[in-house]
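Sample intake sheet
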Amino acid sequence: MDLPIALDSHLPQPLHAQLYAELRQAILTGRLLPSQRIPSTRSLAQSLSISRTTVTQSYEQLLSEGYLETIVGSGTYVCAQLPDDLLCSQQVEPSTQQAALPIQFSQQGRRLTEIPFSLPAEPKATISFRYGRPALKDFPLNLWRKLLSRHCTATPNWLDYASDFRGYYPLREAIARYVARARAVQCHPEQIILTNGTQQALDLVMRLLIDPGEVIAVEDPGYLSARRVFLSYGASLYPVPVDESGLQVDQLIHEGAEKAQIQKIRLVYVTPSHQFPTGSTLSLPRRLELLAWAQQNHALILEDDYDSEYRYGDRPIPALQGLDRNHSVIYISTFSKVLFPSLRIGYLIVPSNLVLPFTQMKWLSDRQLPTLEQQVLAEFIADGHLESHIRKMRSHYDHRRQVLVQSLKQHFGDRMVVLGEKAGLHIMVRMNLNLDAKEIMERAAQVGIGLMSAHPCYLPSNWHEPNADLDSNPNSSNANSIDRRCEFIFGYSELDEAEIQVGISRLAKALNP
C-alpha cells in the first residue's frame, strides 16, 4: 500500500491515535477505497518502523467503528458501507404543494390556541429590573461541580431508570427534613413527588383533580403562568381580590344569589407566604379562615410557596400545609429561586390519599427526573449547604432590597408606593406620575432601563371570553384604574447595589419633569 502516513513520536497524542486518525482520513477522502485490502498489522508496522501493538490498537478501533472489516483467511478490508454514510439521509426533492393539511386539535389544543401566549424576549436594557432569576453569579459553582463529579464517578446507577417514580428517595428525605425546619410543613418522604419545576406540578394537579368547567379561585392580581395552565384545561376562574393582608378570604363567603356559584369552587390557588406580585403575606387569621372554608366546602387549597426562604426583619408565618388538619392542602415549591432555574427540580407535597394517583400521573407525564442532579441536590441539602447558601443570599438580597427602596424614595418621594418589601426577590411599586404605564416603559427603555409591568397579573374584565388577551399591554382598555396601569414589578436579585442606584437615578431623570 503506497499511502503516505506521517507519525510524530514527539506529539502528546499517542502513536496509535495518530495512526487511527490518518487511516480514517484516508478512508473518508477516498485514498483508501471501499472494499480495498489493507496491509496486515505486521507489514504496516515494519514499513512505518513502529510497534505491531500500535498498529493493532489502531485497526481494532477502526474495526469497532465500522471502517474496517476482517474476512477470515483473506485479510482486512475497508468496509463497502462506511458508518458516516449511514448518518447522512438521502436528499428528497421538496414538494411543490405548499398547503398544509388541516389539523383537528383536541379540546385542550383548541383552548391553547385561544390563550394568547408569547415567549419572553431577552432584555435589551443595560439595567433590567426584571423578576424571576436568582443571583446566579453568587451560586457556589465549585462546590456543586465537586459534588457532581463525585456522584458521576462513584457508581453508574444514575444512568438507569429510576426505581421510584416519585423521585430519588434520599432527596425526598432531605426535603422533608428541610421543609419541617424552615416552613413547619408536616409530611413524610412518601408524600413528596419530585417534579420538573412548578409548572409540571400545576399541570399534574389539573390533570388529576379538575374537569373542564370547574371553578378555581385565583388571586387577583396573581401569577400569570398558573392562570394559563388552569385555562388550558378548561377551568373557570373566580378572581379574588388581594390586599395588604393577602387573599381576601371573605370574598369566598357570600350569601344570597352568588352562594350557589361560590360553593362550586373546587380549588383555591394561593401564594400566601409572598403573594405574587404584591408581596403581601396572608395573615394568620385569614389562613385559619381559608382552611375552615376549604373544609366546609370540600375544596382543596393549592399553596405555591415559591420563594418564602427570603424574608427580612421577621420570622415567616408557618406554611398553610403545616396548619392543615383536614388534608385539604397541596403544597408546591421549587429550587429555581434558591439555587438556579435550569436545575428544574420542584416538588409537590400531597395528602396521603393522593400519593398513588399523583405517582401514576407523574410516571405517565415524564417517568422521572435526571437521577444525577437529584443525587447531588440530596447531598447538598443533607450536608447543610442549601441553608448556608440561603443565609448568605438572604443577606445579599436584603442589602439590595434596602438600596432599591431607599433609591426609589430618594428620587420619587411620595409619588410612588412600595408594596411587599419585606420578603422575596422583588417589590411592587405603584407610581403616581401623571404618565400611563406604556409611556413610563418607553421612557425607561430609551435610557436603557428594563421594567416589568404588573398589569398582566390582573385578570381583564373580559378574561372569560374567547381570545381574551391575558397579556394585554398596560394601556389596554381592560385596565380598571390608573393605579393598576402604573404598577411595576422591580426585581433586584440579579443587580448589585451600584447597578440599582444607577438604574433608579437614570429612571428618575427619564420620568421626572
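Comment: The longest strand covers residues 236-243. The mean pLDDT is 87.
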